[in-house]
Write a structure and sequence with these properties.
Blueprint (H helix, E strand, L loop, with lengths): L6 E6 L28 E4 L8 H20 L3 E3 L18 H6 L4 E9 L5 E9 L4 E10 L4 H17 L8 E8 L6 E8 L6 E2 L7 E6 L5 E6 L6 E6 L5 E5 L4 E7 L5 E8 L2 E8 L5 E3 L7 E6 L5 E6 L6 E6 L6 E2 L6 E7 L6 E7 L2 E7 L7 E6 L2 E6 L5 E7 L7 E7 L6 E3 L4 E7 L5
Helix pairs in contact: 1-3
């Protein structure tokens, strides 16, 4: 079990000047994540201290994961440890800030790892503003030894939040479709891993085609489509226990299941008589409600964070476009008007934007627009981009990109909301249909 293993014992934000400093007070450093391309902030991350050899091993590994997390955001540049002048010997002592300014560090994250008497690890860290010569925050965690990576992600989240003002997203997981084999005979398995690619495991065995996994807001459940027995059905899977169930045996084909924000409903599209309409199912009563009734293909629905509205794709106007309607159905209004067709809409966790896939002039574009359709902008384009999913802080998107040729296949990519810092997300093989988890409690 991932939940409940880590307890935050203290979180201290210290903005008062440390005693004994002769320099005048300076503004604390911060990163403005709304300014497009940002020069990465130089940050020093020494290995966490440890008394025993094993504690020192944990300290090196935790520091490496913190550095990798922060670097992957594109907002931080961890400084090579070989450049360090001061060797931290105690996290309770004030750093020699001059030594860190010489190597152009603007922030310093120092910590230590201790194995306590019951076998757990205690990890502590302090974040220092090198320019203002102040401690910015300090946190300590207790966890089991096998859960040390999660401690690293939580520390990276704390640093990210303190320096950007935004929630971190490193203590999260991804569920996706892992693909292997020839292009015309692909084996597709449901897989889950930490956002940095660690702790990969397969949730299905590949004997049946699986598609479109989506996380519950509760984080320990996913819904997905499976063709087990040759018939498309929507399943609910507890990713901790492995228990799964068929949500319902719907007439016709079912597509694109997704949870409501409160986790009590599933919204999906059902195809009957050549048309597809949007339905919801209450997971408690198992009753389903029809939301659209149109001689068209309505699918790809996604709730607004407050659960009051739904965005979906439809060809009711003659081409595939995006529409928004009340969560009770009715009064759908078109919000996409650019050249091309639109699909796979997904509402940002912040509620301010809707991400989508757009096909125009032979290109597949990942873009965003406001819920009223205004402010449309392209983040990236390519041969075949599809399936955006939001990080829980609403600042980063992930999607998959198909490569050309008979030997090509899909891979996962991540991009910042500003359209910068696009990077490949490593997986053991081909991967598609990513879904980002909420923050793990």
């Amino acid at each position: 079990m991932r939940t409940g293993l880590i307890r935050i014992l203290s979180a201290m934000v210290m903005v008062a000047a440390l005693t004994g400093l002769s320099r005048p007070a300076l503004a604390l450093i911060e990163i403005d994540v709304t300014q497009g391309k940002v020069e990465p902030l130089p940050i020093a991350i020494p290995d966490l201290l440890g008394r025993s050899a094993k504690e020192q091993d944990y300290g090196r590994e935790i520091a490496a994961v913190i550095a990798a997390d922060l670097k992957s955001s594109g907002l931080f540049r961890p400084i090579d440890q070989k450049a360090f002048i001061q060797r931290i010997s105690s996290i309770n002592s004030t750093p020699r800030f001059g030594d860190w300014r010489v190597i152009n560090a603007q922030a310093l994250a120092a910590g230590q790892v201790t194995q306590v008497s019951d076998g757990r690890l205690k990890a502590e860290f302090r974040l220092w503003d090198v320019v203002a010569q102040k401690q910015m925050t300090g946190v300590q965690f207790f966890t089991t030894r096998k859960n040390w990576r999660r401690v690293a992600h939580l520390i990276a989240d704390a640093i990210y939040k303190r320096l950007t003002g935004e929630l971190g997203y490193f203590d999260t997981r991804l569920v996706f479709i892992a693909e292997s084999g020839p292009k015309d005979k692909r084996v597709k398995r449901l897989a889950i891993m930490d956002q940095d690619g660690a702790n990969l495991r397969y949730l299905t065995d590949g004997r049946s085609l699986v598609l479109t996994p989506r996380f519950s807001p509760k984080a320990q459940e996913i819904t997905y489509m499976s063709y087990a027995g040759g018939r498309p059905r929507v399943y609910l899977l507890n990713i901790e226990t492995g228990q799964q169930e068929i949500i319902g045996d719907f007439p016709g084909m079912s597509f694109a299941p997704r949870f409501s924000p409160d986790g009590y409903k599933i919204i999906l599209s059902l195809q009957q008589d050549g048309n597809a309409n949007i339905y919801t199912m209450d997971l408690r009563s198992r009753r389903w409600t029809r939301l659209t009734n149109s001689p068209s293909i309505d699918t790809g629905s996604s709730y607004s964070p407050d659960g009051s509205q739904i965005v979906f794709e439809s060809d009711r106007g003659g081409s595939q476009q995006l529409y928004v309607m009340s969560a009770r159905g009715g009064n759908a209004r078109r919000i996409s008007f650019g050249r091309g067709s639109y699909s796979t809409p997904v509402w940002s966790p912040r509620g301010d934007l809707i991400a989508f896939t757009k096909r125009s002039e032979g290109k597949f574009i990942i873009g965003v627009m406001r819920p009223d359709g205004k402010g449309e902008r392209q983040l990236t384009s390519g041969f075949h981009n599809e399936g955006p999913t939001w990080a829980p802080n609403g600042r980063v998107l992930m999607f998959f990109r198909e490569s050309r040729g008979s030997s090509g296949g899909p891979q996962l990519y991540q991009i910042d909301l500003t359209g910068y810092n696009e990077r490949l997300v490593r997986t053991p093989g081909f991967a598609s249909d990513p879904a980002w988890s909420p923050l793990i409690n």
